[in-house]
């Protein structure tokens, strides 16, 4: 207790002593003076109260002192409590250790005893076998009983190794006795039965160990090896493979119960479980039977069966992937994981890759087809807003790094593509980048067919955009915008030509490599088949592209011929009473349309070689059409007798006009004899003989030259007046054409003819022509220069009868390229116009 309480205590004692002294003095005073009783009682009450107050103070101070002591010593109490707990734990550990040591000592004692007993037993059995003399029947029977009892004892004590040693030793002894033939047959039979019984009991016990799912790998290996020592390798193989089958099934079940299926690691974990278990089984099998065991086929068959289980899970997983949420890259990644783990087994002579590829191929076909169908919908969506305006795209901006690194051949500076074509290239590159790893898995044929199918779908859309007359709606609801103007249709063909080259290049570079094939012999076997498949696909693509071009030519011819071919004879009377011959409206329209297409080259829109090839195909198609539709001219035998009949002149004039505009454009400059061949074929199809029925005069050539000159003048005047409409008046209505700049001069037109026309009459002729365009319904019915005197017709007959078809005309195709310097922007849209005649 603190010293602060001492003053109160001492004060209390002093007051008590003072009270005693006062009381003594009071009693002495009472005794002596006999004081009053009331004074005594008053003093006693005060003392008691004072005493009570002092006691209460003492109690409070005692409680405070106790609390201070508890607070000051609390941490020491806690520390002591924790130390006591740690001591208790140490005591428990010490107790367990003592128990363990006690058990080990007991096992050691028992082991030494059993070892001594076993050695004595085995030594006694060996000593019996050392005796070369055949034992007596009674001794042999006693030996058999001893062996059976020993085996029972060892099996009951789970001493498998010792039991195996005894069985092997007794089996050798039985074989020796059977070979020597000294022992009675009944005793040998008894001996053999006893051994078989012991083997069966030992095999059963080892089988129980192997079938226990909790058995560790070393214990399993030891049990199966024991069964092999007993001579039952078939059972040993079955138990080994069954053990790993159960482990695989358990691993797959646990994996399916986990969340790896949702997180995208399901196939990787599944492949790791299955192929690692197959690898462990193969190692155990090799340790038991060696690398060249006759039972290796059973291991391979079992591995294939387990791989089928993986294929079922794999197909179920990949089919559940959504094509919209990036499912294709995940599927490819899953295949790569599967093949990677499967390839690790090849170091153990287990080649399961071909088997796995064969069985996952059907599932991959379904998955790829699902994604290809989805990409078809994507293509139809981005073609729904296509305006079919051609644009130049730098190759570096179109081809990504991955495709650029594998592209082969000469690279262009830019690609000519429409908007949808540009998007299709991007889509094609993305698909190729995603699925190109499957090429190394010998799935290139599967991928190639899918890409070709997608390209064909886009080609069909382009064909519909060119050939259809009304808006087309696809099955998915997407609309196909039509290419209405000529420039739009040609842009579609250029776009398709660019895509054809790009597609052919990318599939050759992607699928043409054989570096992924390890075996040189296999590479040599597959390269020819692979090259044939690539060539077949590329040929198919080219045929599809040519088919679109052919449809374009057919539609062009149909539209051109519907304007007036075969309607009536185009002989019109001029003001002075003379007649000017003009080709059919259809061929006049053809000439002007071809001029528009040529200007696309002059304006640096398209490549010259490509457009010349298209125009050449168009002229060839027109000749074929004339040969197949000879009835439109209705040339009769009477017309043949009278060469100057209207039908004959119309036919000859149209054919000659077609030949001359082909020469004028230089479409057959590389092989002019082809043009003569087509001309002769047209005459023959009409029942005419080119040599016999050829005109003796040159009226057709002269008329054609004048017609071309007039058409060029009309074209020039329309361009100079900034009129977007083409100066062609049809019988019913005029179609829209592409706006063009002035390119050809009047000198260009005149240089085409053999004889120059009188320049003094040009102005008058042009004025009359312009007035006539506003009044007549025919495409050209003008008053111009009077007809020139006809020559002797030698030029026309020469064109019909010579191979080079040389007609004395000036080649102005080279002058056109040199004189035209104007250019147009590639994205200019066509503008059509109508020119009405009265």
Automatic annotation (TrEMBL):
Residues 730-838 are annotated as: Disordered. One of its GO terms (biological process) is exocytosis. Residues 143-325 form the Exocyst component Exo84 C-terminal domain. This is Exocyst component Exo84 C-terminal domain-containing protein. The lineage of its organism: Eukaryota, Viridiplantae, Streptophyta, Embryophyta, Tracheophyta. Residues 735-750 have a biased composition (Basic and acidic residues). Belongs to the EXO84 family. Residues 793-804, 816-826 have a biased composition (Polar residues). Gene3D superfamilies: Exo84p, C-terminal helical domain. GO terms for cellular component: exocyst. It comes from Juglans regia (English walnut). It comes from the Eukaryota. Keywords: Exocytosis, Transport.
């Amino acid at each position: 207790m603190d010293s602060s309480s001492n003053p109160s205590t001492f004060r209390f004692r002093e007051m008590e002593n003072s009270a005693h002294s006062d009381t003594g003095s009071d009693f002495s005073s009472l005794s002596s003076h006999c004081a009053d009783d009331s004074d005594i009682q008053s003093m006693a009450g005060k003392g008691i109260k004072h005493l009570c107050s002092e006691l209460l103070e003492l109690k409070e101070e005692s409680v405070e002192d106790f609390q201070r002591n508890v607070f000051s010593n609390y941490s020491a109490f806690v520390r002591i409590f924790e130390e006591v707990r740690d001591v208790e734990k140490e005591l428990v550990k010490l107790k367990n250790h003592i128990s363990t040591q006690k058990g080990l000592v007991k096992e050691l004692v028992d082991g030494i005893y059993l070892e001594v007993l076993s050695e004595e037993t085995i030594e006694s059995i060996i000593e019996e076998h050392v005796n070369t003399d055949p034992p007596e029947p009674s001794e042999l029977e006693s030996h058999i009983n001893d062996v059976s009892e020993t085996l029972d004892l060892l099996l009951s004590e789970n001493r498998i190794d010792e039991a195996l040693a005894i069985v092997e030793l007794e089996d050798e002894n039985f074989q020796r006795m059977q070979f020597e033939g000294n022992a009675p047959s009944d005793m040998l039979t008894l001996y053999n039965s006893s051994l078989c019984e012991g083997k069966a009991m030992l095999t059963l016990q080892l089988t129980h160990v192997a079938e226990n799912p909790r058995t560790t790998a070393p214990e399993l290996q030891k049990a199966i090896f024991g069964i092999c020592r007993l001579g039952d390798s078939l059972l040993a193989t079955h138990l080994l493979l069954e053990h790993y089958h159960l482990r695989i099934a358990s691993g797959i079940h646990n994996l399916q119960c986990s969340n790896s299926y949702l997180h995208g690691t399901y196939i990787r974990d599944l492949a790791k479980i299955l192929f690692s278990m197959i690898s462990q089984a193969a190692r155990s099998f090799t340790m038991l039977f060696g690398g060249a065991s006759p039972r290796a086929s059973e291991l391979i068959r079992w591995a294939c069966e387990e791989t089928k289980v993986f294929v079922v899970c794999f197909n179920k997983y990949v089919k559940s992937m959504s094509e919209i949420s990036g499912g294709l890259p995940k599927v490819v990644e899953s295949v790569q994981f599967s093949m990677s783990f499967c390839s690790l087994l090849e170091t153990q002579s287990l080649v399961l890759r071909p088997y796995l590829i064969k069985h996952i191929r059907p599932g991959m076909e379904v998955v790829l087809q699902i994604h290809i169908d989805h990409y078809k919908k994507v293509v139809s969506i981005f073609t729904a807003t296509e305006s079919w305006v051609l644009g130049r795209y730098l190759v570096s901006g179109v081809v990504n790094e991955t495709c650029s690194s594998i592209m082969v051949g000469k690279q262009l500076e830019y690609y000519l593509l429409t908007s949808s074509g540009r998007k299709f290239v991007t889509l094609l590159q993305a698909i190729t980048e995603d699925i190109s790893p499957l090429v190394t898995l010998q799935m290139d044929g599967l991928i190639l067919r899918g890409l070709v199918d997608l390209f064909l779908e886009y080609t069909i859309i382009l064909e519909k955009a060119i050939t259809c007359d009304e808006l087309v709606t696809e099955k998915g609801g997407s609309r196909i915008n039509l290419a209405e103007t000529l420039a739009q249709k040609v842009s579609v063909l250029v776009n398709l030509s660019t895509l054809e080259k790009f597609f052919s290049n990318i599939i050759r570079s992607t699928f043409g490599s054989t570096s992924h094939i390890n075996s040189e012999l296999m590479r040599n076997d597959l390269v020819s088949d692979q090259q044939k498949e690539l060539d077949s696909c590329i040929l198919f693509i080219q045929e599809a592209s040519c088919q679109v071009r052919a449809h374009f030519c057919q539609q062009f011819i149909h539209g051109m011929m519907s304007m007036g071919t075969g309607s009536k004879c185009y002989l019109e009377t001029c003001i002075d009473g003379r007649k000017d011959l003009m080709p059919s409206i259809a061929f006049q329209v053809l000439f002007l349309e071809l001029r528009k297409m040529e200007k696309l080259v002059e304006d640096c829109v398209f490549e010259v070689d490509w457009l010349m090839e298209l125009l050449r195909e168009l002229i060839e198609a027109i000749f074929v059409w004339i040969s197949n539709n000879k009835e439109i001219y209705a040339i009769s035998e009477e017309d043949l007798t009278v060469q100057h009949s209207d039908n004959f002149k119309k036919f000859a004039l149209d054919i000659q006009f077609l030949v001359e505009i082909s020469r004028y454009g230089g479409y057959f400059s590389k092989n002019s004899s082809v043009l003569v061949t087509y001309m002769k074929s047209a005459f023959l199809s009409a029942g005419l003989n080119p040599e016999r029925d050829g005109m003796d005069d040159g009226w057709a050539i002269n008329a054609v030259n004048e017609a071309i000159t007039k058409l060029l003048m009309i074209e020039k005047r329309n361009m100079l007046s900034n009129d977007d409409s083409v100066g062609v008046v049809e019988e019913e209505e005029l179609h829209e054409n592409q706006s063009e700049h002035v390119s050809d001069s009047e000198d260009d037109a005149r240089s085409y003819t053999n004889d120059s026309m009188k320049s003094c009459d040009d102005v008058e002729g042009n004025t009359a022509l312009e007035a006539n365009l506003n009044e007549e319904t025919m495409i050209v019915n003008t008053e111009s220069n009077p007809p020139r005197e006809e020559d002797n017709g030698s030029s026309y007959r020469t064109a019909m009868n010579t191979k080079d078809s040389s007609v004395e005309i000036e080649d102005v195709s080279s002058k056109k390229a040199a004189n035209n310097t104007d250019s147009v922007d590639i994205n200019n849209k066509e503008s059509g116009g109508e020119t009405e005649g009265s």
